[in-house]
Amino acid sequence: MESLTFDLSQGGVRPLNQHLHGPAAELTGQHITVVNPDGAHNIAVGLNAPVKVTIDGHAGYYAAGMNKLADVTINGSAGTGVAENMMSGKVHVKGFASNSAGASAHGGLLIIDGDAGLRCGISLKGGDIVVGGSVGSFSGFMAQAGRMVICGNAGDALGDSLYEAVIYVKGEIKSLGADAQLEPLGDSDITALTELLAAAGLNHKPQDFKRVASARSLYHWNADADQTY
Amino acid sequence: MCGIVGLLLKKPALRSQLGELMVPMLIGMTERGPDSAGLAVFTDPLPAGLRKISVYSGLTEEGSDYNWSAMLDALNTELKVQAKATVKANHAVITFEGAAEPVKAFVKAYGPKLHLLSTGRSIDLYKDIGTPAEVAARYQFSQLQGSHLVGHTRMATESAVTPDRAHPFTAGEDFCLVHNGSLSNPNGVRRMLEPRGIKFETDNDTEAACRFLEWRLREGDTLHNALQKGFEALDGFFTFLMGTSTELALIRDPFACKPAVVAETDDYVAIASEFRSLAHLPDVKHATVFEPAPEEMYVWKA
Amino acid sequence: MSTEHPITFKRLQREESASFDRSTLDYIHRASNTGLYEIRGLGAKRKLPHFDDLVFLGASLSRYPLEGYREKCSTKTVLGTRFAKKPIVLDTPITVAGMSFGALSANVKEALGLAATAMGTSTTTGDGGMTQEERRSSKTLVYQCLPSRYGFNPDDVRKADAIEVVLGQGAKPGGGGMLLGQKVNPRVAKMRTLPEGVDQRSACRHPDWTGPDDLAIKIQELRELTDWEKPIYVKVGATRVYNDVKLAVHAGADVVVVDGMQGGTAATQTCFIEHVGIPTLAAVRQAVAALEDLDMKGTVQLIVSGGIRTGADVAKALALGADAVAIGQGVLMALGCNRDTYQQGGQQHSAEADYAALGTAPGFCHHCHTGKCPVGVTTQDAVLEKRLEPEWGAKHLKNYLKTLTMELTTLARACGKQDVHHLEPEDLVALTVEAAAMAQVPLAGTSWVPGQTG
Questions:
Q1: B210 catalytically annotated
Q2: Other C-beta atoms within 10 Å of C356: how many?
């Protein structure tokens, strides 16, 4: 495996991203280490190849934004919008993640070992998110598809205006958002939890989680009124 | 819309390095706030009976050549307050005996274009237009000493780019506030406060928050209660960082759209809008780094 | 004895209230029936100060006109010159505004692309992603990044010619989009990752940033992702235009798009359409003032939209300082919106009965939200959408855009300009005090500019 190191204190993110946007054939199998990230924004955005990237320190906004195929590890915390709009691949935050982690992700797996801020998984469109710690308020807001596993607690208004995404929570839920409801765990939920917890390397019992999904009462404001608008 | 920074040194031995540690924090927030920058630094309090005001001369015709000694002569002749000044560029800290109000009234009458920045026994305040690096160099921020500070870089939203609209804002004595975000009801707050004798100097939304909180403190609220009333009265998006002579306090609105991150070690508590501004701090790799929760009050004692 | 009522009494019996006129009564009766706000399509219907309230000072003796059709008058328009390595170069300053696949059918999106390409101008995606049809048919395609991020993905970002970060829309600044269940057919649902047939409400704020300081970082992400090649537009609904334009420039926009309150929508609450935002006429001058105050005029380009209908509207927007315009509703009308007939299989068919079924008539229809567009423009219905054939639509739209461009150059030549971008505010005067105040041009026949000259 070819290894390369980019020092962000020398030249910033531009050369790193330019390299990571190179031909997929050349990038495949490479392992890029990013040192001195020091909270820089937009590290490793728009990746489109099965390349491995390790960010050694804290990342700023949109780390691994819109990721496809790549496997990105952040040995530190991540700023706002880590792995936003991810399509596939894996992003692993070893520390905590700020607001809007995994926002609008269509696919892939986002693992956050620590806590996540507000609006984790907002507008989720099919990705999987596993949070080792707790999530802030409005997490899973308008989440359309995909799965979220929260091993700690959830803040206010969890899963407000949910569509078809499913949220699993082990700890306390401060409050559920509009149209979100607790549902019993089924066999498929146990299977999903087992798979996701294993992928995140976490040792929780799937049976200890609660399932939150849409009550679907907001899917139509008022079906009877449609014709009289 | 801006960048905020705060630094509180836990060990008195470090106080000589306050400015040096802070300048890279402020410069780290340049992209969030390229228009203007400001800083309130809290020093050991002056002995009882003494006060100081920070005054800005950048709006006068003389600017940084302002004749402070003539003003001091006139002030001391008229009020006999033993005033002395420390001058840097457009800025002077004037120390004097007795109450602040007569001195402030004198300064306003003597130099209508002089701008009063702060009043108290601990606080020195600097703010000016320019990039954070330019402002830091202009006022030699790296040489500042003290126990804690509150700093700000500004990207103006609704009100103009002028030195008086830069942050921090102050009200009363030894109180200042910086803000990242945008309030949606600053004019209503202002109209509520003005009949209570509270005067505003700018149209800036942050000034409304600052004067509201200081008003509550002056009315006898604890900082905790004042902030609680702030959550009820102030609408919009905000991260506020406040300084008093002995404390730094931080709150975020319930939506917490505007970022904040804290790094704490045995030596310091450092607060910034983004980790970029904390990255250079000594031993930050081993600091406890966390994001303050919305609607929580964080208060650190100097 | 006569039982006849006095004539004055008879009229009093039938006097309509100005406050509670017939449409207000309808509004209250409807609200009391449904308990829901009204939702509809298109833009503000109320009369507003508009470009019609301005006229050009054509050349005569003090200025010399150019010969129409003979002497050259350039319409070339370049957008995104500030940071992008590959700016957008257009043959005309008239572009097609962002309208979603979902609001419009795939056929319509294809027609837009074909016509825009033939005219050398750009089209824009909307809330719902990029369709293959529109990418294929559009030489220059602007890809919107919206709060909902429906169908948004990095592959399409890379395929786009420019990216437009949408903060708001003239029809509903501060509000999110809507797409009622009738229009969420299987293809739309799949592109937006939604269950079929749900009433879809979009977010009003972006999921991962708030405010200009964050927007600067978001723009940088899009630049990094596209290796700094593509122009980044920022679109705002016209409200606090002066501040918003300044902040968009601070945040790093290459192009600012300002959409006035006459701008249309596929579906929004009527209270938004009629009561939020400022008229396009007022918005242009505020936007230009912001760019001039920052010394960014010419560096950051301005696109104006919201109720632009004619070549005269375009010329006036340019004269007031816009670099280009974007048209939405006018484009739909060129495709047959509100026509009494549609063309299918080479035959004209009457659509009157379908309008009547919606409770409306050609000329009054704003029922885009129902998905039952009688002429097949704003629908996902399998039968209705066939009523708009892409080639027919493309031909009509091309004619419309061509007419507007010709009118634009005609007016520019009449003012003595060899380039439509040389039109200036001093070429205009206002017919009403309101328009003079908003556009900051003199009232016709005077030197009086309200607020400037006494």
A1: no
A2: 12
Distance in Å, alpha carbon of A211 to nearest chain B alpha carbon = 25
Q: Outline which parts of chain B fall under CATH 3.30.70.120.
A: 49-121
**Residue contact C152–A85, C-beta within 8 A:** yes
Q: Which domains does chain C have, with CATH numbers?
A: 51-439 (3.20.20.70)
* Residue A223 covered by a domain: no
Taking residues A204-222, report their average pLDDT.
91
Task: Find tokens 């972006």 and name the residue.
Answer: C206
Whether the per-residue pLDDT at A228 is higher than 50: the answer is no
Residue C329, phi then psi, degrees to nearest 5: -60, -40
Give the CATH number, domain containing residue A75. 2.160.20.60
- For chain C, the maximum distance between any two Cα atoms, rounded to a whole number of angstroms, is 93
Catalytic residue (one of B2, B176, B210, B257): B2
Residues of chain B with CATH 3.60.20.10: 2-45+130-301
Q: Residue C132's pLDDT band (boundaries 50, 70, 90)?
A: very high
CATH for B2-45+130-301, options being 3.40.309.10, 3.60.20.10, 3.30.750.24, 3.90.1150.10? 3.60.20.10
Examine the pLDDT at B41 and tell me if it is beyond 50. yes
Q: What digits encode the pLDDT tens for the residues C85-114?
A: 999 999 999 999 999 999 999 999 999 999
What is the average pLDDT across B186-206? 92
The 8-class DSSP code of residue B145 comes to -
Q: Is residue A228 part of a domain?
A: no
- Judged by CB atoms closer than 8 Å, whether chains meet at C198 and A164 is answered as no
Q: How far is A80 from chain C (nearest CA, A)?
A: 7
From A203's Cα to the closest Cα of chain C, the distance in A is 30
ipTM of the assembly? 0.93
Mutate to test the interface with A, among B27, B280, B291 (most CBs of A within 10 A): B291
CB-based contact, C247 to chain B, within 8 Å:
yes
Give the residue on C whose Cα is nearest the Cα of B259.
Answer: C214
Q: What would the 3-class secondary structure string for chain A be?
A: CCEEEEECCCCCHHHHHHHHCCCHHHHCCCEEEEECCCCCCCCCCCCECCCEEEEECCECCCCCCCCECCEEEECCCECCCCCCCCCCCEEEECCCECCCCCCCCCCCEEEECCCECCCCCCCCEEEEEEECCCECCCCCCCCCEEEEEECCCECCCECCCCCCCEEEECCCECCECCCEEEECCCHHHHHHHHHHHHHCCCCCCHHHCEEEEECCCCCCCCHHHHHHC
Residue range B49-121 forms a domain whose CATH class is alpha beta
Give the count of domains, chain A: 1
**Helix (H) or strand (E) segment spanning residue C311:** helix C311-319
